[in-house]
């Protein structure tokens, strides 16, 4: 598959062109992370390292949990890393500066020390932090809207931003808890922020993600949907921060509210996944004449367990090259179905639709050819028939040899 860059085709970008914007964004975000950590170092002592360890500890599990929502059509890893780094860097450092300035020059001078901190946390911080976190989502809507195929994508990117922000924020909270109250207070804060409600920031920003995803996939609501999503994020964030003034009862209410939001997001992703499966079943059969897909192949593509089984079979037949070819085929087929969804909603310019469709079909063809050209592994299955189409037909079965009377 040397003539085609599968990642470039799946991401809808020009092959071979270095992602300058992404490189610049990651560099700026990384510098902001360093500056934010430097501020923590200057204001703390030994508690800094305790905070770093505890803040990072749950992140791999939380990221893995978030990515389980996006298994049918995974987002590009580089875009996910950028979203995470934006939340951990630009959003955190910007919030640190703006929240501090707001306290010093607005809320405390107007409302006094105690009430000023409450007003800042309940009304000022949600506006500042959700605007900064949501900025990268608005940027994707403006520059990379074709990367967002549905609500699941908006939620995933928002979750990455929120997890990056929460990780950096938790360093400060754990550091202060350790220095003010020792191990006992640190344990309490870690249980509250790291175990009971580790997804609060991702949940807040997911509201913005929903609005941005709607705008990216519908002709109407291009401005209203993202703004409403951002307002929803600010509202949830403000309720969370303000609940601290009402003791355990207030915290219990917002915990229940966030749990309800989490369940709602899971339902949205599940319903959307079923719709994607139906689109795979509806659109891909029209390409059966190309030989790239058969009804049996569609049945394989419509469920995650059968896709996983197909990759295992491909690896057993031809090793890692065959497995990679199968992955490319599956992802290109899914992108093709989602492309037709955009066209049905009037969100696909005709020339772009044609070019995108042809590039995906070419990738499917090359993936299939690469799979068929892969020599069988020693000790692999004796039969070359895929398990989802033991009697054929399938795009992954070599064509039968010509008959004795073929010309």
TrEMBL record:
Protein name in the entry: PrsW family intramembrane metalloprotease
Organism: Actinomadura montaniterrae
Signal peptide: none
Keyword Transmembrane helix in annotation: yes
Bilayer-crossing regions: 20-42, 48-67, 79-106, 118-143, 155-175, 195-216, 223-240, 246-269
One MF annotation (Gene Ontology) recorded for this entry: metallopeptidase activity
InterPro entries reported in the protein's UniProt record: PrsW
UniProt biased composition (Pro residues): 396-407
